[in-house]
Amino acid sequence: MLLAFKGYLTNKALVREKYVPFYFKWVSSCYAFFDKENSHILS
Prior knowledge:
Layout: H1 2-11, H2 20-33
């Protein structure tokens, strides 16, 4: 799921390429905080 998010950020050019790792890390940390698996959709 997170790799799909990373691809979405890269392909849709919503953020600059150099900022993609920041967003990826932020979302990964969010999943860790809520103790959820990456395959679970947070809403």
